[in-house]
Amino acid sequence: LTIFLFPSSHICFSIAHTLLFWPGPIETSHPLGPVTLLVWTHPFHRRQDLPDCYELFHISGCALTDDRREYAHADAVVIHHRDVVLGSDELPPEPRPSAQKWIWMNYESPSHTPQLWQLEGVFNFTLSYRTDSDIFLPYGYLIPRTHGTRSSLGRRAHLLHRPSNKDLRRPHLVAWVISNWSETHARVAFYYQLRRYIDVDVFGRAGQPMEDSSKGSVVRLLGRYQFYLALENSLHTDYITEKLWNAVQAGAVPVVLGPDRKNYERFLPPEAFIHVDDFPTVRGLARYLLMLKRNPLLLRRHLDWRGDYALYRPVMWSEHYCLACKTTRRGRGRTQVVRDLTKWFYS
Ligand SMILES: *[C@@H]1O[C@H](CO)[C@@H](O)[C@H](O)[C@H]1NC(C)=O
Ligand SMILES: *[C@@H]1O[C@H](CO)[C@@H](O)[C@H](O)[C@H]1NC(C)=O
């Protein structure tokens, strides 16, 4: 078993395909004093209160601020990509204080990340869903139960369970929640094919309205379905979003369209999802889903893994800031520049 430890974050990987949780030692004393992290813009200009990193994540020595007057003595500045490239805001002023780190934060896929080329050689760290970011935090991840008790996993971890008999005979078959319908998306082409063979209940702006669109209500809805179409808007390395984790949380088997199967297996056991590439035809996939519906014992194979895991879904954006702060403190005194941002992000 080889474990790749991400030194900048509290997560590591095992090539046995599951993400392991690695909280790291709780650090209490910092000879160099706390780190000040300036949040340059609140993502999409939606203001949020800044978190207490120690209380929420046991990360100490962090002073977070969104007050730009702190710029001159901030150790790091977090800059959300979209807010500075679309002209609504500018990058911080140059020359920057020496030793200050600029952190590029982005949770959109490359297809929806405009004007990257403008930002070559500007940043010192990357913060994104990509596993090879300097600061890596995915949309969700699994924690093996053996790795902690209920209380050490924290309040925000969702314990998953082996399926009950009721879970194997849910009243509805396949759901899809879609807010941005575009005929150019691979996922829409896939849907057109799939619905020739199997009923798909479509929700969201393009289908039946949701009661409300909060995360909780999607999970509640999916709790009545056996399968959920977790189809990404574009296909890129590690770009696996909350769609997948909504299904996992609700105990619906995700049918995924996104990066390839091997990439998903970095995040989930192989049987925990059905990949559209697993079948040579969409018809073959549809038949498989119908067959599972008739054979609860076979369906169980896709759900039994749940007994060994808890699901963790990082809070946007508190955890991102606190992790950025932790990495900044560890990298104090070191110089690092992000070159080839575009090439890397598209790879
Ligand atoms: C919706 O999809 C289109 C086509 O890919 C894209 O240009 C647009 O940015 C998307 N909108 C949102 C809100 O994601
Ligand atoms: C951060 O990146 C800038 C721009 O490339 C560079 O000039 C600076 O030396 C870097 N600073 C640190 C502390 O890494």
Task: Describe this entry's structure for a reader.
This protein folds into two domains: 35-137 and 315-346; 145-155 and 163-312, Rossmann fold (3-Layer(aba) Sandwich). The chain is 23% helix and 20% strand. The chain is built from eleven helices and 17 strands. A six-stranded parallel sheet has the order 5-4-6-7-8-9. A five-stranded parallel sheet has the order 13-12-14-15-16, sandwiched between helices. The chain has a three-stranded antiparallel sheet with strand order 1-2-3, with no helix packed on it. It is an enzyme of class 2 (transferase). It is found in: Endoplasmic reticulum membrane; Golgi apparatus membrane; Golgi apparatus, Golgi stack membrane.
